[in-house]
TrEMBL record:
InterPro entries: Solute-binding_3/MltF_N (IPR001638). Residues 67-292 form the Solute-binding protein family 3/N-terminal domain. Residues 1-27 form the signal peptide. SUPFAM superfamilies: Periplasmic binding protein-like II (SSF53850). SMART domains: PBPb (SM00062). Keywords: Signal. This is ABC transporter substrate-binding protein. It comes from Mycolicibacterium diernhoferi.
C-alpha cells in the first residue's frame, strides 16, 4: 500500500486504507459507500470565516502569499483521499480548509510521498503537513506538531452483537492484512487465549479494509479491528449495520507538522481552538462519523511516546 504506514509509522503501525477507491462499494445489497455525498456536504461544513486577530498571527511570508501550502499523502479514508472526480477530500481536508479560512488563507494541497513531507517542511517547500501523522517524540526532534485528533484501535461488530475485545477467544475477527491489528494485536490476544486453555481467535485477513468490513456485515466474521478513524467511518458508512465493540485503545494524537520553532504552529493552535469553541470542529468531525476522536484543546508537541 502506498504510504500506508503513515499515521503510526514510527510505532510500526500500518494504516488501513478503507474505502479509498472512489465510489467503492461493499457487496451488493449490504451497504454502499457515499463518498460523493460526503464530499459534497463537507464543503459547506468546512467553510469558515477569517478571524482578523488570529490571521494577524500568521508569519508575514505566508500571510503575504495568501496561501497555505499543505503537503499530503493519499489515500487514507476518511481522512484524506480522492473522490470520483479526483478531488482531494476527507476529514483532514475539511478541517484544514476551515483552519485556513480562519487564518484568511487559501489552502493549496500538494501530493507527496509520505516520507518526503517532513523533509519538505524542513526545507520550506510545504508550510504544513496533513497526512494523519502521529505526533511522536522522535518526530518532534525534526518538526513541531499541532495536535488535532486522537486515534487508536477500535473494534466493530454487527448491531446487536456482544463481542468484547478483551474476551474474544474463539471468535472470528476480520482485519486488513499487514496492519498492526493483523501482525501484532490479534496474534497477541489469540496467544493469551490459548495460554489460558481457551480457543484461539480466528484471524481473517483481507487485502482491503472494505472487504474486511463487508465480511462482518455479511456475517462471515464476528467482528473487525482497525484504526479508530477507519472503524468509525465504516460504522457510519454501513448505516447502522455495524456498531462499536468496546472502546478505542492505544490512542495517540494526530498532529500537523510545521517547521521547528515556526510561529505558524501557534497560529494553527489558535485557529483550531476557535473552531472547537464555535462548534465547527465538531460539525466537521460528525460529518465523517469521527466524534469519538475529537480533542478539547490543541497543543504544540503533545506526543505520548
Amino acid at each position: 500500500m502506498s504510504a500506508g504506514c503513515k499515521n503510526r509509522r514510527s510505532r510500526k503501525w500500518r494504516v488501513a486504507v478503507a474505502f479509498a477507491a472512489s465510489g467503492a462499494l461493499l457487496a451488493a445489497g449490504c451497504t454502499s459507500n457515499t463518498d460523493s455525498a460526503e464530499s459534497t456536504t463537507s464543503t459547506t461544513a468546512a467553510s469558515a470565516e477569517k478571524v482578523e486577530a488570529i490571521a494577524n498571527t500568521v508569519p508575514e511570508a505566508i500571510k503575504s502569499s495568501g496561501k497555505l501550502i499543505v503537503g499530503v499523502n493519499i489515500p487514507y479514508a476518511p481522512n484524506e483521499f480522492k473522490d470520483e472526480t479526483g478531488k482531494i477530500v476527507g476529514f483532514d481536508v475539511d478541517l484544514m480548509d476551515a483552519v485556513a479560512g480562519t487564518l484568511g488563507l487559501t489552502p493549496e494541497y500538494r501530493e507527496s510521498d509520505f516520507a518526503k513531507i517532513i523533509p519538505s517542511i524542513q526545507g520550506g517547500t510545504f508550510n504544513v503537513g496533513m497526512s494523519s501523522f502521529t505526533d511522536s517524540k522522535e518526530r518532534e526532534q525534526q518538526v513541531d506538531f499541532v495536535t488535532y485528533f486522537s486515534a487508536g484501535t477500535l473494534w466493530a461488530q454487527p448491531a446487536g452483537g456482544d463481542i468484547d475485545p478483551e474476551n474474544a477467544c474463539g471468535k472470528r475477527v476480520a482485519v486488513q492484512a499487514t496492519t498492526v491489528q493483523d501482525t501484532d494485536e490479534l496474534p497477541a490476544r489469540s496467544k493469551k487465549c490459548t495460554e489460558e486453555g481457551k480457543p484461539a481467535i480466528e484471524i481473517i485477513p483481507f487485502d482491503s479494509q472494505d472487504a474486511a468490513t463487508n465480511a462482518v456485515v455479511l456475517g462471515q466474521a464476528d467482528a473487525m479491528s482497525a484504526d479508530s478513524p477507519v472503524t468509525l467511518y465504516a460504522i457510519k458508512q454501513t448505516n447502522g449495520k455495524l456498531v462499536q465493540a468496546g472502546e478505542t485503545f492505544d490512542s495517540a494524537p494526530y498532529g500537523w507538522p510545521v517547521e521547528k520553532n515556526s510561529p505558524l504552529a501557534q497560529s494553527l493552535v489558535q485557529a483550531l481552538q476557535h473552531l472547537i469553541e464555535t462548534g465547527k470542529y465538531k460539525e466537521i468531525a460528525a460529518n465523517w462519523g469521527l466524534e469519538e476522536g475529537m480533542i478539547d484543546k490543541p497543543v504544540i508537541n503533545g506526543a505520548v511516546s
